[in-house]
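Sequence dictates fold. Next comes a concrete instance:
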Amino acid sequence: MGQPKVRGPTLGIEGARGEAPQDLEKERILSCSPLAQLASPSRRALLDLGRIERLARRQRIGQQGAPPRHLVVLGAGRVKVERVVEGRVVPLGHRGPGDLVGESALAGATAASESATVLDEGEGLVVPLPGLARLIAADAALRQALAAALVARKLEIEARLGSLLLCTVEARLLEFLRAAAARWGRPHASGQLVSAPFTHADIALLIGSTRETVTLLLGKLKRAGLISFDRRRIVIRDGAHLAARAAAT
């Protein structure tokens, strides 16, 4: 397999859907994001600046060390965010529908602090940074909404760090399953399907463990009747029991 293509979103879908459907899609994506409560005229200005683009699998929409070009609000799909530190890859998480990608550039950095690669194809609201910078400078409501989104991301990272330092591997796995069901959950005959195809190796990287340990713990949860598998995707069979077990672990 080759290396992921390093490029930003470039494939617009205006011609395929027309202006009116695209406006509706912009609204849908923004309404599921941390900027959902942004009111007009700030909301209208942001939507007019952005465009809907398809995100292809393995497409790199941000490159650590390269000049950032855009903020992406994901509408569908999954993006892996990671940073290389002293030659080692540090996983920063997987972003899904409603999440921001590239928000670290809002602080004015001239180089991206992490890389972002599309794992599952989807689409996003792509906002070019030069235009966004001008909007931020002139719009206090937009500044406040973006600042709140950045604080929320900071708190999420701190919570993850606390989990890595203080919680057992099983507790971290249970929390991962809870969060994955909340983000990528779909109704399933046996409960709730985590539609994103996380591998055991993916999960191990995200919770600071090993693939072998994750496999053993998932098997334990399966035998307890809390999860099952459907075409290599995880099914949460008993979300309430899973949450109770996480609280007690």
Remarks:
- The two ends are 40 Å apart (CA to CA).
